[in-house]
Amino acid sequence: MNPASALATVLVDELVRCGVSDMVVAPGSRSTPLALAAHAESRLRLHVRIDERSASFLALGLARRSERPVALVCTSGTAAANFHPAVVEAHESGVPLLVLTADRPPELRDTGANQTIDQVKLYGTAVRWFAEVGVPENRPGQIAYWRSLAARAYQRALGPGDPGPVHLNLPFREPLIPDGDTSWCEPLEGNPAGPWVRARVAPPAVSLHIPPTRRGVLVVGDGAVNVRRYVAAAGMAGWPVISEPSGGGRYGDHAVSAYHFLLGTPEFAEAHRPDVVVTLGRPGLSRPLMSWLQHAGEHIVVAPDLARWPDPTRSATQVAEAAEITVAAGDDGWLHSWQRAERAARSAIDDVLDGSGLSEPRLARDLVDLLPNGSLLFSGSSMPIRDLDQAMRPRRGLRVLANRGASGIDGVVSTAMGAALAHNGPSYALLGDLTFLHDQNGLILGPREPRPDLCLVVVNNDGGGIFSLLSQASLPEPFERLFGTPHGVDLGYLTAATGTPYTQVTEIEQLAKALRGDGPRVVEVRTDRGPNAALHASMREAAQEAVLKALG
């Protein structure tokens, strides 16, 4: 067996032994040994994408939903550079990726050789670990090196506590395809009992015990872990729970879904300064929430990895790997005050939305209400996640995910495809038109590729709707060209190019029927940026007026 084929075969086998079940390949020449080894491995589910960026975000979605490392393969040169945005998102959001970049051997580097760039530490600090594997050679000791390297890469990507991307750069000399010779200087087989190296995880550190208080609040942001445990503890302690849609804690009687409007009302925010706030994950959608956090008597950040804790407001007073919320004696006046304001604000918001026709916030609210239990909803990172945050009512039985690590709009179609492929149940996505156009290649699926059950709901306001809610909108002359960016693309023609089923919704009552189906499909909802900005102002005014009345 030639060295390139031997390394690829052993590496793929060891990654499967460690737990990898999905591998995404972008075609290329130098990565041929890895692609062939993956194709021959019956224990793998193989995914092939012609666009490296789409491939990388597909792997990101698979890994995010499955919470297991997914291997990602490309050839040398700019192919590897196109992985970078997904690697950054995986780094920031703690998603386990195994990035395997094929490379030219050292003697071809810095010589002007075709398709050759500097791939050593290509992703900089955006990976948990990097290794230049070295050109494979037919000599004793290579098998132990390759297998132990694969086991280490898998475990470092998985975490625990600090999952994220790992980059292995693999230089291959020709020949790149099997030569028919199966001999090797030592046995190629792995450990019959499992991985070459077994990693043993130490028990978690002792939890921080929070002194009993009734005036506490649990805040759940994106990427939070052990959410149900903390929501249950907050319920026992009589604390309200503030959860972003992708936090996974917006359910139950203690959920405060209108928190953005409550905390945006100065009188409420001042009267509801907590003794302690416990935050999980990375909250960051609501400016009123971030401002309010700075006034907490105690702000405890729960972070599984103490080397990387989220604290954008610099308001944390303690950081712990785990915390215990204890029950305090006293009445539920604190909780009831939050609940009264929540009911008042929610009723006011719903009244505004019910009269808004086919609006973006109403679409977000009604979409969540329509989805069956066991569904996955993947949200775009611009207006859709904010519309969900402000309009989504508490509910169970729905998993909401979003690329909130770096909060980019790139790769969302492909990430949603990957998440849907890893989800056991129907999947949906809510995204804007620019986000959709940014990753339209995500719709390209070869005839032999696994096809997810995914309905993409695209809000088309012909441009960047979020800017109409920001200060840039006060600059009328350059606004449309620089920020509104109208494109005029007919999404029906675009989806037809890939054979993707397409439906346009013109009335909110049509939404339920439009969502039905199976496989990848697109539902377009056209809106207008100007009225949408006015509607958000109406929601805010109505909610704040209702909150003030509730305060008495």
Short summary:
The protein is an alpha/beta fold and 552 residues long. It has helices at residues 3-18, 32-40, 52-66, 78-81, 84-93, 142-158, 227-237, 259-263, 266-271, 287-293, 333-354, 360-370, 383-391, 412-422, 433-438, 476-484, 491-497, 511-515, 529-551, and strands spanning 22-25, 45-48, 70-74, 97-103, 129-132, 165-171, 208-210, 216-220, 241-243, 276-280, 299-302, 318-320, 323-325, 375-379, 398-402, 427-432, 454-460, 502-505, 521-526.
Write the layout of secondary structure elements.
Layout: H1 3-18, E1 22-25, H2 32-40, E2 45-48, H3 52-66, E3 70-74, H4 78-81, H5 84-93, E4 97-103, E5 129-132, H6 142-158, E6 165-171, E7 208-210, E8 216-220, H7 227-237, E9 241-243, H8 259-263, H9 266-271, E10 276-280, H10 287-293, E11 299-302, E12 318-320, E13 323-325, H11 333-354, H12 360-370, E14 375-379, H13 383-391, E15 398-402, H14 412-422, E16 427-432, H15 433-438, E17 454-460, H16 476-484, H17 491-497, E18 502-505, H18 511-515, E19 521-526, H19 529-551
Parallel strand pairs: 1-2, 1-3, 3-4, 4-6, 5-6, 7-13, 8-9, 8-10, 10-11, 11-12, 14-15, 14-16, 16-17, 17-19, 18-19
Helix pairs in contact: 1-2, 1-6, 3-5, 3-14, 11-19, 12-13
